[in-house]
Amino acid sequence: MIVGLRDIHERKDTKTPLSARLREYRLTLKILLESPSSTAGLVIVLAYAAVAVIDFTYPSLIGVQNAYSLVPDFMNSVPTPPVWPTHPFGTTFPGVDLYQAVMSAIRVDLWYSLLIVLAGAAAGTVVGVFAAYVGGYVDEVLMRFTDIFLSVPYLPFAIAVAFVLGRALDNISLALVIVWWPLYSRYAYGQALSLKENAYVEAARASGVGTWGIIFRHVIPNVLTPIFVQISLDLGTVVQVFAAMTFIGFASGNPLLPELGTLISNGFQYAVAAPWVIFFPGVAILIFAIGMNLLGDGLRDALDPRSRT
Amino acid sequence: MKLRYYIARRLILLIPTLLGLTLIIFTVSHVGGNQRLLGEYINTHSKIPVSVQEQLLAERFHLNDPLVVQYFYWLAAFVQGNWGYTQTSIYSGTVLDAIKLFFPNTLILAVLASILTGLIGIPLGVWSAVRKDSVLDQTTRVVSFVGYSVPLYWLALLLIIVFSTSDVCSCLSILPIGGTATVSLIGGVDWYSGGISNPTHVLLIDSVIHGRFDILEDALMHLVLPVVTLTYGVMASVLRVMRSSMQDTLSQDYIRTARAKGLDEKTVINVHARRNALIPVATLLGYTIAWLLGGVVLVESVFNYLGIGYWTTQAILNGDVGGIMGATVIFGLTFIFANLAVDIAYGFLDPRIRH
Amino acid sequence: MRLTQEAELDLEKQTSEPLLRVDGLRVSFITRAGRIQAIDDVSFEVKAGETFGLVGETGCGKSQTALAVMRLTPEAGVIERGEIWFSGTNVTENIAKEFKLIPKKNNRVKLKRNKSMLKRLDQKINQLRGKEMCMIFQEPMTSLNPVYTVGRQVSEIMLRHSVDMLVDRIIARNAATEEKLKTITDAASRQELSQPELRKILEETGLKELEDQIWFILSRKDIGATQKIRTISNLAQHKVKSTTLAFLIRLKKSKGQLPVEYRVLNKIPIARRWLSGAIEKEALEVSYELLSLVNMPNAENVLRQYPHELSGGMRQRVMIAMAIATRPKLIIADEPTSALDVTVQAQILELLRELKRTFNSAILFISHDLGVISEICDRVGVMYAGNLVEVARLDQLFADPKHPYTQGLFASIPKYGEKRELLQTIEGTVPDLIDPPKGCRFRTRCPRVHEKCSNVPPWSEISRDHGVSCWLYEDGEKHVNQ
Lengths: 309, 355, 482
Prior knowledge:
The complex is a heterotrimer of chains A (309), B (355) and C (482). Chain A has one domain (31-303): MetI-like fold (Orthogonal Bundle). Chain A has eleven helices and two strands. Chain A has helices at 5-10, 17-34, 36-57, 98-134, 136-150, 154-165, 169-196, 199-206, 211-248, 260-266, 276-303, and strands at residues 91-92, 96-97. Chain A is globular and about 75 Å long. Chain B has 355 residues and is mainly α. Chain B is built from 14 helices and four strands. Chain B has helices at 3-30, 33-41, 50-60, 67-79, 95-130, 135-149, 152-165, 182-187, 203-209, 213-250, 253-260, 265-303, 308-318, 321-349; strands spanning 85-87, 92-94, 192-193, 196-197. In chain B, helix 5 (95-130) packs antiparallel against helix 6 (135-149), helix 5 (95-130) runs antiparallel to helix 12 and helix 6 (135-149) crosses helix 10 (213-250). The longest helix of chain B is centred in the C-terminal third of the chain and has 39 residues, at 265-303. Chain C has 482 residues and is an alpha/beta fold. Chain C has helices at 2-15, 62-69, 115-128, 150-161, 163-175, 178-190, 195-205, 211-218, 225-234, 242-253, 260-267, 269-274, 277-293, 299-304, 312-324, 342-359, 370-376, 394-399, 404-411; strands at residues 20-31, 34-46, 51-55, 77-86, 89-90, 99-103, 109-113, 133-136, 330-334, 362-367, 379-384, 387-393, 459-463, 466-469. In chain C, a hairpin with a 2-residue loop joins strand 13 (459-463) and strand 14 (466-469). The interface between A and B is large, with 35 and 41 residues.
């Protein structure tokens, strides 16, 4: 029996690539939700995202008066313990309500971390895929370039950058992006290499799609899966690293900017006498990192082809 | 290829890498132009007018020559040990002296943490993979998970709070090393001055040499908390990788062959599986060391532990050029040599690499 | 030792007690997708010294049968039922206590293992594995440990199972004198010695433990007669230190149970070289002999090399060397040639045939290739979808296959001189083993299917050595279906 082209087009169940991909995502979600730890991770991350968004749009919904700056009270600058309902987390130096500070800080940290990771991922993926696809001399050069950056330890490098450019949050972010992108480049490179030989790439090329078109419309979407997993794992790490650097003292730009690392360093001197001062900001970082790591691990397991049969 | 040749090759490759490092440091220190450099040396109270000073200094430091030439003069000075000056709240003097003071302490901290990680982390990872899903495995997984999710400096702070408020052991204080009370214990000692102990610069060893075991005990006590914190942080990732790598290894064909030979399970795991499972861990070691460098900075700052990390933090806060330079030098050198060690270990573990 | 083994084999042949007996074996795999019934009620025997082939398509369960015999079933698999008897020992004893299948919803089951029972069973089978029954695997590329040298991996087996032999050799060699060796070399130069003749001379001179080594030297094809004589004479020169000798004699006397002082001393690296170091060196020496036996080119260098430096054929030779090291009674070869190219394949098969002649081991040979099977097997079992459908002698199977599946297999082999348009195939595909057809599993593709086939067919003996599992032969005769 010979199947004619007309038969194919008239078949109602011909799937478009988009709906097929949506089905894949739904399957991923289903497997993810089967695992209690991954679900917990997802819940945590969503909760944090919610806080960040609300803090940005309607801060008063969660009880934050000023979302963009800490509100010091120099009259009562010494930290006071948690009191419900006025100061659920207590206050920290200099007289700042800790609860509001942490809520807004979550937004700030999440924002910066997301920016850093996405920037790094985007840059890295494009470089990696480009190198893999074009191959040859370009490939060699780009990959050597990546390797050099891959061997840079983040802290000394960030120190150097801060020294050169000045201590500011934006500069730390830049330094972290530079440290982070090579990992994505490597990842994307490996994935793209194996995908390069796939049939649909050949088909696209045969029908005349240009190099950049192929890269962006065909290769990158399929490279995205492990990249996505790596992003979710990295977000947890970057939040930590970012807060660590502000803790050390990098961000001198705006001392009233709510930021988790800054909060911890602010309360550093009072830590022993008033433990809540560092407890709450730290826990905020910890829970987010746990949630993100759980989610990332869960995603990786769910996307592992072995578990999808 | 024999292991010897592999090591020799690596050592030779070291030279260009070191040169590259000097280039980076030179760039870092000379960025911001000559003004910055001059700013350090100009004495505004001197009778000599500033412009003249500038001229003299510029000649002395060859600041008017092309950059390339400057680099060579700088390199010459660098190799001779002239690494500039540092001026921070905890120490002021030449960078070289500062390093001599701080580095041994950091070294102890890092070495102890690494040894503990190796002694505990690797066997634990192996057992965890072998006894999959057992109570030991689950506990290990949770502990390790928390370990790489927790901000290390925050954990350090928590530990400080717990140990200082509950008066569990007042000796586990966070004061800088050198004695619970500088005066009472270490002040009257003649082999310890200005923060540097003689002859080995390492307080632990020197106290034994001079027979002062009370100082030894005191120093050890001061080490406990920082070491524990740092070890926990490093061990978390090592555990995770070791466990998953061991799992992968155990599913390999050659393990089946080993069992088919009638070897007992202990031999199969310890002889055949473990060495192969260590290979990915060794690969990760480079990254772990980079992390360790960062962790050291955090932990030392929190514990006021007189090491390179603490000095770096102070340098950043005070905008101290010399300090930052020195930190970059130390970190760079450590990193390069650590990677060398990792490469050699890797070559030892995996014969395929030697070819 | 060898004498006794041969005598045993002769005895076994006489009493016709099979070396290996598999009885009603059922193996399942518990997976996410369900419970895969990989092997269902398989029974066969392998007599001492014979080569029994298991042939079938991919997925029919032949490899898993072999693995079950060695108790190497993968983590997700369980031997649910059946017995495996090897050389009079029940390998599967207590196996039911080792695991538990807990039924869950959706017809699924959960597998729970009893770790301590598993450990005990493993200890028991480790006495047999590698010693009395050895296995050669399909993938030579991944079956060797990449971080250890070939020499070390081959020696390992002997250090585990044949320490006695090694110790005997060293002691005997130490006792060998120039005159005693001269007796041998004189006899050898006079005429071509056969192995029994050599053995007699060695017994007379009290050097019978050196039989393997001397025979090996005499049968070497790469050196001339004078060189051989000289090598044998030089054996007397390879003496060990007196401390070592004392240690070894003590070891032999205490039957492997060393006194505490020696055990402690043995742990110190330097002292160790004087004590058990000699044994390890001897093991390497024997490894060299084994590698030469399997026709490994440049055997001396190969000992020092790592697996990744060898080709596929060479690696497979290493595996074979490991399999014959302890002169096992049964060698299980799981598609040993499938991963190799055709010329190497022929060499390996020839090697196996030669080894079979020399050592008289039984071989359980697994393959999907009827051609390979025909080169080496005495009897053959045909498997389909986890069932054993036919067992026969090689000549019987090829001359008169009874089961429709076997017939289909033979028919699908293109024959030289035959003119066809299309290749003959068996219609349909292999069934899903999670939910296999009830009754005869082949009935979905069988050209002779009828209503009886929805029940499990009985096993019928067509003639001596020839059995079929098919309703067509219910009464031992060909049944005519309407």
